[in-house]
Design a protein that fits this description.
By secondary structure, this protein is an alpha/beta fold. It is built from nine helices and eleven strands. The strands form two sheets. Strands 3, 4, 5, 6, 7, 8, 9, 10 and 11 form a nine-stranded mixed sheet that branches. Strands 1-2 form a two-stranded antiparallel ribbon. Helix 1 crosses helix 2. The chain is globular, with a radius of gyration of 17 Å. The mean pLDDT is about 95.
């Protein structure tokens, strides 16, 4: 079959993913999951979840979290459902479900899809980050996961604001060049925005940003300590990133 079963968190969970097409999850999903504190015990929505790696990572580490994977592409929804059904995921499967929905839906259409107002305590997202001007992939499923659409952050963050309760939280991972679009989309919706730059190594430019924000807060933006994937020129992960990748810590345990 054109799929693989991949091990994450050193056996903490298993994920069915496309083998030769579509998006295959890796470190970005684990870093995104790391934005959720280990003691989180509410309802979380993984928006644009793909096969569900970030949501599964939260469910595996946060033992009382209830996770809803929200994905538009039918093929990726099918992979997520296969992952939930795996015997290896029996310990967490009863806390994970899937909704097939387009994040650009509004009002009644969004609610009819199962995304109700104020239904979640936390929303996380790893939106597409490639510019439409970049070299295009011939794989339509991969393009859907990687290529930004018009007003993408406005649409996704608007939906997050609708489904997250007041004083609930938003977490996302993106490229640094998207920061201005993200901040604009958060205006009037999310405040107390914490920006964590992610660098491959010290003395190198940030390659990602992690954003944590609180719905309806008016607290100002804060630039947080940087996260380094590698401590030196070696290929080994830094201790913190290794712990996040393997479900041992959240990013908050470094502060």
């Amino acid at each position: 079959m054109n799929e693989t079963i991949d091990v994450f968190h050193r056996g903490g969970f298993y994920l069915v993913q496309p083998k030769n097409g579509g998006h295959r999850s890796g470190m970005d999903a684990m870093l995104l999951g790391g934005l959720v504190p280990t003691d989180f015990c509410g309802k979380l929505a993984d928006l644009g979840a793909g096969a569900g790696a970030a949501g599964f990572a939260v469910a595996a580490r946060c033992k009382k979290a209830e996770v809803t994977l929200v994905e538009r592409e039918a093929e990726m929804v099918a992979f997520a459902r296969k992952s939930i059904a795996l015997a290896q995921n029996a310990a967490i499967a009863n806390r994970i479900d899937v909704i097939s929905a387009d994040l650009t839906l509004r009002g009644k259409e969004r609610q009819n899809a199962g995304l109700f107002d104020n239904a979640f305590d936390f929303a996380i997202m790893n939106p597409p980050f490639n510019s439409p001007m970049d070299r295009k992939t011939p794989d339509d499923l991969k393009a859907a996961a990687h290529v930004m659409t018009d007003r993408m952050f406005e649409n996704w963050i608007r939906t997050a604001s609708a489904i997250v309760r007041p004083s609930g939280f938003l977490g996302l991972i993106a490229r640094p060049q998207s920061l201005s679009d993200i901040l604009k989309a958060c205006e009037g919706r999310f405040g107390n925005i914490l920006v964590f730059p992610v660098h491959s190594r010290k003395n190198s430019p940030a390659i990602r940003i992690l954003i944590h924000a609180k719905r309806a807060s008016k607290a100002p933006l804060s630039l947080m300590p940087a996260l380094y994937i590698h401590d030196s020129d070696l290929h080994a992960f830094s201790p913190l990133v290794d712990a996040i990748n393997n479900g041992k810590k959240s990013i908050w345990q470094s502060l």
